[in-house]
Backbone:
C-alpha cells in the first residue's frame, strides 16, 4: 500500500476521521452523566447529539450524492441551452440514444420473463439444490462487468468457440448490436428475480392453492392471484433493471468495439466525447442518464409506498373466519 | 436496491395466513408450473451465465502454468491488485461508518426532507457509472467546484489513487445503509428502555445492545460494498488517471490486454478476479445466513 497512498493522499480520510472523532466527543460530552437518574425512560439521544449526527449524515449525503448529481446538470448547461441541445442533436448522439433504447427494450423483457419464472420455482416449491440455484442467479452481481464482457468475447469473438462458425455464416455478435444486448442481459440478469423471490416467499402459497382448488388453471392463478400481489415489487425490479440496462458501461464497452454511430450506447458516447474534451456535449448526454436515474428513484419511491399501502390494506382485512359473537343468555 | 439484499424480511410477511401448509413441506405439489419454470430458469441461466463462464475457464486451461503465473504476477498487474484491493477496502470502510450513520439518522430521527434523502441513497444504483465517473472528475479536478479549493492546499483528489477511493465510496454507498436500515427498524425498543432504566448511558447502550444486534447486517453491507468495488470499472477509469503502476485498476488491465489482442493474458487476469468474486459471494452468503439466524427469521 506504499504505492502513492502517502500521507498527503490520506487527507480525505483524516477529514472524515476528524468528523467522526468530533461526533464521538460530542456524544460523550452531551450524554447524560452516569448515575444521574433520568426523569423518564428515554431511548433517544440528547438534542445536540441528534443534531450533530443528522448534520454529519446530511453533509455526507450532500457531498457524495447531491453534489455529483448537481454537477452533471451544471456542466451540461455551462454554455447555455443551445449548446446543450446541440450536443444532443448531433447524429451520433441520436444513434446512441436509439441503440440504448433498443438494448433496453430487448434485455428487460428477457430478464422479466426469467425473473418471474425463477421466482415462481424458487419461492413456491421446495427442491434440492435450491440454495445453490439462488447463488448462481446472484453470480452476475459479483462478477466484474469487464470480466463479463470478456466471457462473451471468448464465446462469440473471432477467436472464440463459435467465432469460426459465425464468420462462415456472416453473423456478427461481438462488435455489433447482439453482443451489446447479450452483455446487458448478463449484467442485469438477477435484478427482477432477486426482487421477486423474497416477496413471493413471504406471501406463501395459500392464495394460489385456494385458486387451484377452486378450479382455476395455472395461468389464471398467476394472472389473477399472484400478479396483483407482486405487481409493485415487479415494477420496482423492472425499473432498476432498466436503469442498469441503459447505463451499463464496463461490459458493453468490452463487446461494442466503439464504432461511432453504430455500436455506441449513451454511456459509451459520453466516454468518447469526454475523452475528446467535448465536455458540454458529454455532460449533455450524461444528463439524459441522470434524468433517467431520477425518474427511476421517483418510481421506486412510489412503488415502495404503494406496496406498503397494499400490505397495510391486507393487514386490515377482516379475518376470514370471524369468531362468532357470543350472545349473552 | 433491495434486489441485492434478499435477507431483509420482505413486505407482506405479515399477511401470510396461518402457517403449516405454507410452504407445503412434504405435501403434494398443488401448484402447477414447477417443471416449466425450473426448466426455463436452468436453460436461461446456462445460456446467459454458465456457458460463457465455462468459456472463460476453458480458455485458462489452454495456458500452461508458467504462462498463467507470469501473466497474473507481472509487476504492473500486482500493482493493480494492490490498488484495487486497497482502495476497495478503504472505500468499504468509509461506507461502513457513514452508512451506519446515515441508516441510524434515517431510522431514528425526524428532519425535513427525510423522504428525499431516503430515496436519494439509492442514487448510485440508478446513476450509470460512467456518469458518476465524469461528474466526480469534474468536481475534483483542479478547476472543479471542490478541486479549486483543495489544489492551493496541495491536495489532489482526482487523477491519482484518491480518486479511485472516492469513486468507490460513491458506488458502494447504498449497500451498508440498505442492509442496516431494516434491522434497525425492527430492533426492539424495549431492550434499550430496559438498559436505560438500569442506568446504562446511551453510548453503552449503543455498543452493548444496538451494535451486537446489527453487526451481521453491517458486515454483510461491508462485504457487498467491497465486492462491488473490486469489479467496478466505469466510474473509476475517468477519475483515476490510469497511470501504470500507480492508478491503474485490475479491470483496466484486462481491457488493456484485450486492446492488444492478448486474449490469454486478459483471461488469466480475469480468472484471478473471478476467483475473488466467488470468494466474496461465499462470504456474503455466509454472512446472510448468520444474519438470518441472528434475527431469528425463517431462512
Residues:
Amino acid at each position: 500500500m506504499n504505492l502513492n497512498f502517502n500521507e498527503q493522499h490520506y487527507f480525505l480520510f483524516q477529514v472524515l476521521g476528524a468528523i467522526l472523532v468530533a461526533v464521538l466527543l460530542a456524544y460523550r460530552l452531551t450524554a447524560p452523566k452516569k448515575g444521574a437518574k433520568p426523569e423518564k425512560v428515554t431511548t433517544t439521544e440528547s438534542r445536540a447529539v441528534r443534531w450533530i449526527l443528522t448534520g454529519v449524515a446530511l453533509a455526507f449525503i450532500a457531498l457524495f450524492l447531491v453534489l455529483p448529481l448537481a454537477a452533471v446538470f451544471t456542466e451540461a448547461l455551462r454554455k447555455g441551452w443551445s449548446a446543450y441541445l446541440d450536443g444532443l442533436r448531433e447524429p451520433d448522439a441520436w444513434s446512441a440514444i436509439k441503440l440504448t433504447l433498443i438494448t433496453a427494450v430487448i434485455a428487460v423483457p428477457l430478464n422479466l420473463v426469467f425473473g418471474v419464472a425463477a421466482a415462481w420455482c424458487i419461492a413456491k416449491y421446495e427442491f434440492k439444490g435450491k440454495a445453490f440455484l439462488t447463488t448462481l442467479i446472484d453470480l452476475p452481481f459479483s462478477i466484474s462487468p469487464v470480466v463479463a464482457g470478456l466471457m462473451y468475447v471468448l464465446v462469440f469473438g473471432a477467436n472464440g468457440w463459435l467465432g469460426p462458425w459465425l464468420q462462415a455464416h456472416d453473423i456478427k455478435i461481438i462488435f455489433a448490436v447482439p453482443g451489446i444486448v447479450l452483455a446487458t442481459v448478463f449484467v442485469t440478469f438477477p435484478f427482477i428475480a432477486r426482487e421477486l423471490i423474497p416477496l413471493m416467499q413471504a406471501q406463501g402459497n395459500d392464495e394460489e392453492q385456494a385458486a387451484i382448488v377452486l378450479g382455476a388453471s395455472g395461468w389464471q392463478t398467476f394472472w389473477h392471484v399472484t400478479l396483483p400481489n407482486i405487481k409493485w415489487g415487479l415494477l420496482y425490479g423492472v425499473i432498476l433493471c432498466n436503469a442498469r440496462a441503459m447505463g451499463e458501461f464496463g461490459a458493453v464497452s468490452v463487446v461494442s468495439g466503439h464504432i461511432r454511430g453504430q455500436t455506441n450506447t449513451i454511456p459509451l458516447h459520453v466516454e468518447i466525447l469526454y475523452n475528446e474534451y467535448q465536455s458540454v456535449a458529454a455532460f449533455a448526454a450524461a444528463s439524459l442518464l441522470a434524468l433517467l436515474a431520477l425518474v427511476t428513484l421517483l418510481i421506486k419511491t412510489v412503488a415502495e409506498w404503494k406496496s406498503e399501502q397494499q400490505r397495510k390494506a391486507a393487514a386490515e382485512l377482516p379475518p376470514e373466519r370471524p369468531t362468532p359473537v357470543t350472545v349473552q343468555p | 436496491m433491495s434486489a441485492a439484499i434478499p435477507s431483509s424480511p420482505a413486505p407482506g410477511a405479515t399477511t401470510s395466513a396461518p402457517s403449516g401448509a405454507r410452504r407445503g413441506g412434504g405435501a403434494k405439489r398443488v401448484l402447477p408450473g414447477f417443471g416449466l419454470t425450473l426448466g426455463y430458469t436452468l436453460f436461461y441461466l446456462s445460456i446467459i451465465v454458465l456457458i460463457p463462464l465455462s468459456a472463460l475457464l476453458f480458455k485458462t486451461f489452454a495456458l500452461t502454468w508458467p504462462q498463467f503465473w507470469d501473466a497474473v504476477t507481472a509487476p504492473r498487474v500486482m500493482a493493480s491488485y494492490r490498488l484495487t484491493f486497497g482502495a476497495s477496502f478503504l472505500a468499504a470502510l468509509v461506507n461502513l461508518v457513514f452508512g451506519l450513520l446515515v441508516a441510524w439518522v434515517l431510522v431514528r430521527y425526524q428532519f425535513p426532507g427525510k423522504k428525499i434523502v431516503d430515496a436519494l441513497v439509492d442514487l448510485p444504483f440508478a446513476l450509470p457509472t460512467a456518469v458518476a465517473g465524469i461528474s466526480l472528475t469534474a468536481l475534483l479536478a483542479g478547476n472543479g467546484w471542490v478541486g479549486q479549493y483543495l489544489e492551493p492546499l496541495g491536495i489532489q483528489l482526482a487523477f491519482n489513487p484518491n480518486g479511485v477511493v472516492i469513486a468507490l465510496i460513491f458506488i458502494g454507498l447504498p449497500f451498508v445503509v440498505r442492509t442496516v436500515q431494516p434491522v434497525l427498524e425492527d430492533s426492539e425498543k424495549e431492550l434499550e428502555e430496559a438498559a436505560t432504566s438500569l442506568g446504562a448511558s446511551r453510548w453503552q447502550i449503543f455498543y452493548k445492545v444496538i451494535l451486537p444486534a446489527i453487526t451481521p447486517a453491517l458486515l454483510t453491507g461491508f462485504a457487498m460494498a467491497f465486492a462491488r468495488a473490486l469489479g467496478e470499472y466505469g466510474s473509476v477509469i475517468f477519475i483515476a488517471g490510469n497511470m501504470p503502476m500507480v492508478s491503474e485498476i485490475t479491470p483496466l488491465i484486462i481491457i488493456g490486454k484485450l486492446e492488444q489482442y492478448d486474449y490469454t493474458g486478459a483471461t488469466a487476469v480475469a480468472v484471478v478476479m473471478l476467483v475473488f468474486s466467488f470468494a466474496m459471494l461465499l462470504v456474503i452468503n455466509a454472512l446472510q445466513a448468520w444474519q438470518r439466524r441472528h434475527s431469528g427469521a425463517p431462512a
Remarks:
- The radius of gyration of chain A is 27 Å.
- Chain A is about 75% helix and 0% strand.
